[in-house]
# Entry
Amino acid sequence: MDDDAPAEGKKSKTSFSTRFAFFVVLVAAVIFRSFTLVFFVCMIPTVVAAIVDNHPRKTAWLTIGAMNMAGTVPVWCALMDRGQTLHAAFQLVLQPEMLLLSYGGAFVGWMIYNKITPLVAKVVQAKNERRLKDIARRQEALVKKWGEKVV
# Structure
C-alpha cells in the first residue's frame, strides 16, 4: 500500500472552499474565454518571473506582475471595444503593439525590481549610518557634560 495515498476514511488536504474557488475560477475562465486568453498571453512575463526568481522571499513576481497587469489593462479595454469574442482576442494578442504594451509593463516592473530596490536599500542604509553617528555625537556630549559615569 502506498504511504503517500490518503487512507480511505481520511479527507483530502484541500478544503472545500479551496476546491470551490478553483471550480469558480474554471467556470469563469470558460464563460469569459476571450478575457482569459488575453490574460494568459499578456501575463506570461509574470509567470516567468515567478519561475526564475531565486530570492528566498520570491518577491520579484509581485513587482513585475503588478506592472504587467497595468500594461494588460489597456489590452482588455481594447477587447471590450472590439467585442468580447475569441476572434477579437486572437487579433489583439497577435498585434505587436498590444504585446509590447503588456510586456513593456513587465519590463518596467523588472527595472523597478532590479534598480529601484537596491537604490532604496542604499538610502535607508545611509540614513541609518547617519543616525548612528548622531547618536555617538550626542553620547560624547553627554560624557563631556556628565562625566564617564554616564557610560
In short: The helical segments are 16-31, 33-42, 44-52, 60-82, 86-93, 96-146.
